[in-house]
Write a structure and sequence with these properties.
The chain starts with a strand and ends with a helix. The protein contains 12 helices and 39 strands. Among the domains are: 124 residues; 39 residues, no CATH class; 44 residues, no CATH class. By secondary structure, it is an alpha/beta fold. Strands 7, 8, 9, 10, 11, 12, 13, 14, 15, 16, 17 and 18 form a 12-stranded mixed sheet that branches. Strand 17 and strand 18 form a beta hairpin.
Length: 581
């Protein structure tokens, strides 16, 4: 079988389907995709709201809850206790299949009528109400897509950590602030892509470092300032003099840190122990192509944020363990054979076109918000024989009477749900984080857009009046409405204002940190800028060191997530190791 070039239904650009892709599609009995890999990723992401939460009422018990569904949305929303309680019967929402309507139109109606869980959070949360896609938390606030944490605030993708604030993609760490892609850190501040570092500030791509400041590409070093070795006494004198909690001092060093990062040699891709794999942020992978932020996986393609997957293509947020699945989001915990589904979870087996089907659901088609079910179609129960007879007829019907979206794009069997069927606006979802659009762009591409909300408050503290030194901050700042420096003029879902909570102020004072100037959304988007996009470009190594093994400029070619026009210095793996190690 040969490679084939197709034209994407959505963006109209050409993309290539490889022979191995065709083999996979044949194994799972689906047609080749009509969307390119990037458009498929955006479409999946447009169904995942991780960080946009609201206060509203539970539609069953009427208590105040936190939910990912807007108060003015048309959906029926239940709190955790009601959703998993016995006071409602989700089987009554099942409907007969109607061959006079397209499948996706019927499924859209089912989504609208079926009660939904307020947010994706386990019941083992202690004082951690304002969170989503989380598990096992204690005293956490505005924490998202995270698990096993204590006293963490304003973070996303952090795990097994304590006392973190404003961090992204951090694990097994404690007392860290403004860190991105760091593991096993302690008392680490303003650091990026650094592992096992302690009592340090402004580190980039360092490992095993203690008491280091404004440095990059260091391994097992102590008492370094700007990559220069100092004595312990020199380092301590420097820290006493310069880091006093003053705003301007930290801003000056952030500027120097940005210059340092720009002049620091980068590897073409970040990862360890990867065989025949491509992408970025890979760990312990084999035959994983075009994958980003994945680990312990094999024979996968087009995945983002994944752990312990095998034979999975086109997915996001894939957890241990997921196998033999295609076009899935939030799959995991012994999930197998799931297609075109969102949150096939906890023993999900052979679920097709399902949303929120867990736990222990098997052999279901077009179902939503079901538990412990099998042989269901549109939430209606069938016998095994009836199910196996009806499903092929539905697939044929999907091809004979496809769903056509508002832009005229045709959805036959084999495509993930259209973005216009998502219960969320584009700028409520992670699609906006990874593939940022402005309102006009989103609407022209068939997405819904959340308009800016009217604010019914007045600003108590202008941004220019925020104290410059943490020592000057009094407790009466608590509860005050503080103006965000972006004032809603950015494309980062700015809330225009924010408040400081007591636990947050305690953290700033304990760590001798300045108060933020941006709202939590804008701070999150600023951290995202430190992560490379989920795209690959072909480039050539930029090394021209005569001391390396090549003669003249290195000519090694590679795929990298650094676009060719970016100014960073990008080396191949071999040249990087010769220069840094």
């Amino acid at each position: 079988m040969k490679s084939e070039t197709k034209t994407c239904q959505n963006c109209k650009k050409d993309f290539i389907i490889e022979p191995d892709d065709f083999s996979f599609y044949e194994k799972i009995k689906v047609p080749p995709p009509t969307f390119c890999p990037e458009c498929r990723m955006i479409r999946r992401m447009s169904f995942r709201n991780e960080r946009t939460i609201y206060k509203r009422k539970c539609n069953l018990c009427n208590k105040d809850i936190v939910s990912i569904y807007r108060p003015d949305s048309p959906f029926i929303v239940y709190c955790y206790e009601c959703f998993y309680g016995d006071n409602w019967d989700y089987s009554k929402y099942g409907v007969d299949y109607d061959f006079d309507k397209s499948f996706l139109k019927q499924f859209s109606d089912l989504i609208l009528s079926t009660p939904k869980l307020a947010n994706q959070a386990s019941n083992n949360l202690v004082n951690s109400e304002y969170t989503n896609h989380v598990e096992s938390l204690k005293n956490c606030y505005l924490l998202f897509a995270s698990r096993n944490n204590e006293e963490c605030m304003y973070c996303t993708h952090v795990n097994y950590s304590k006392n973190l604030m404003d961090c992204y993609r951090v694990s097994k760490s404690e007392l860290c602030y403004q860190c991105v892609d760091c593991d096993n850190g302690y008392n680490l501040k303003y650091s990026i892509q650094s592992q096992s570092c302690v009592d340090s500030w402004f580190l980039f791509n360092c490992r095993g470092c203690t008491d280091c400041f404004l440095s990059s590409n260091l391994i097992n070093k102590s008492y370094c300032i700007n990559n220069e070795q100092c004595t312990k006494e020199q380092y301590q004198d420097f820290m006493k003099e310069l880091l006093t909690g003053n705003h301007q001092t930290v801003i000056d060093f952030l500027d120097k840190f940005n210059i340092l990062k720009m002049n620091t040699i980068r590897k073409s891709s970040e990862g360890v122990n990867n065989i025949f794999s491509s992408g970025n942020y890979l760990k312990n992978t084999k035959n994983c192509k075009n994958c980003f932020d994945i680990s312990d996986s094999e024979d996968c393609k087009f995945l983002g944020y994944c752990n312990n997957a095998k034979d999975v293509m086109d997915g996001y947020a894939i957890y241990p363990t997921t196998e033999f699945s295609y076009e899935v989001v939030g799959a995991g915990v012994n999930a197998f054979g799931n297609l075109f589904s969102y949150l096939p979870w906890e023993g999900a087996l052979n679920l097709v076109y399902c949303i929120n089907a867990f736990p222990d659901c098997k052999n279901c088609f077009g179902c939503t918000q079901i538990r412990h079910k099998q042989y269901c179609i549109l939430n209606k129960q069938y016998t095994k024989k009836e199910y196996e007879e009806l499903v092929p007829k539905i697939i044929k019907h999907m091809n004979d009477m496809p769903y056509v979206d508002s832009r005229g794009i045709v959805y036959k069997y084999g495509e993930f749900f259209p973005s216009e069927l998502s219960p969320f606006y584009y700028n409520e979802t992670i699609a906006q984080e990874y593939f940022s659009l402005k309102k006009e762009q989103a609407i022209s591409q068939g997405h819904k857009w959340k308009e800016k909300e009217d604010r019914n408050y007045s600003i108590d503290i202008q941004n220019k009046d925020i104290p410059y030194d943490i020592k000057d901050v009094k407790d009466n700042i608590l509860g005050k409405v503080i103006e965000c420096a972006h004032k809603g003029e950015c494309n980062q879902q700015c809330t225009e204002a924010f408040r400081i909570i007591p636990e947050e102020l305690q953290f700033y004072k304990r760590m001798n940190l300045l108060l933020p100037r941006l709202c939590s959304n804008c701070r999150h988007y600023e951290r995202l800028l430190e992560m490379n996009p989920m795209k690959l470009w072909k480039r050539e190594c930029m090394c021209n060191k005569t001391s390396h093994s090549h003669k003249g400029k290195c000519t090694v070619e590679f795929e990298t997530s650094y676009a060719p026009e970016r100014p960073e210095i990008v080396y191949c793996e071999r040249c990087y190791q010769q220069e840094v190690y």
